[in-house]
Amino acid sequence: MKKFFAAMFAALTICLMSACGSAAEQNPAPAEKILVAYFSCNGHTKKAALEVAEILHADTFEIVPEKIYTPADLDYRTENCRANIEQKDSAARPAIAKKIDAAQYKTIVVAFPIWWGAEPRIIDTFVESFDSAGKTIVPVCTSGGSDIHAAAKNLRGLCKGANVLDGKRLGNINRDEVKAWLDSLKL
User: By the 8 A CB rule, do 112 and 38 touch?
Assistant: First the structure.
């Protein structure tokens, strides 16, 4: 009788262990956290970034300059406006008011307006503020007509060890098109 109960106990233990193993295999690993970080002066980029974050169920972070840009700072018709001066200096790194711990994110969507054909220098400050190795960086821009190619190329040079995707200019495309594009990235 003791042998019978010992055999039953062993069989039950094996079944329970197998069931636990199967349950663990059926439950996928938790989803990787995604961050949508954005810089926006006039609200256009913020709107696009928040839409991307909603679609991706991502956290958001607004990149706020330590010294806020005034309308005069952004008047590109004035040779010595702040934005023109910064964009002409590839080493310019405008300070950011607050930082975020980017280590917890595997994918970071970086949204910004195109300034004079490229990303604003504050975006360079942001991406250089964390270790990008092993991360996926997705550039997203807003622009009246410029594409994102120069900005994506610049970000590839700044984000050492990261997979910087080609990105996309969001302008006159609808939410369904944005969702289809994001789905195609398999983030």
Answer: yes
